[in-house]
Amino acid sequence: HVQLVESGGGSVQAGGSLTLSCALSGVFVTSSRMAWFRRVPGKEREGVAAIYTNGLIVYRDSVKGRFTISKDSAKNMVYLQMNSLKPEDTGMYFCAADPPPYTGNWLWESTYSVWGQGTQVTVS
Predict the structure, then answer these.
(1) Distance, CA of 97 to CA of 25 (rounded, Å)
(2) Distances (CA, A) of 104 to 4, 70, 101, 118, 122
(3) Which residues pair with 80 in a beta bridge?
(4) CA distance 48 to 69
């Protein structure tokens, strides 16, 4: 059974921090490109960060220097550490997995075949 389960969302004041977690079942961080997406009010779902199997990490410009994506192969989990949060970071955050053969741009929703249900982040 393939499943991604996010946790760690919540409400924080601007400038605060949150760490999101994504637990994987049936798919593995060691063999999948993993990403975090978010759906902010009034916008399409957008890529936030991705981590490749070779360790390459990419971020969208608006979160560079504030967010950090990481993974724990032993626990088969992916994390998103979010610091200096801004109200515009408010949204539903999703974990996504792209198993081999890793086709597509990391920013495209269509690249990822496995998605979690999301966790809400609210920054006020």
Answers:
(1) 11
(2) 20, 21, 10, 22, 30
(3) 20, 69
(4) 9
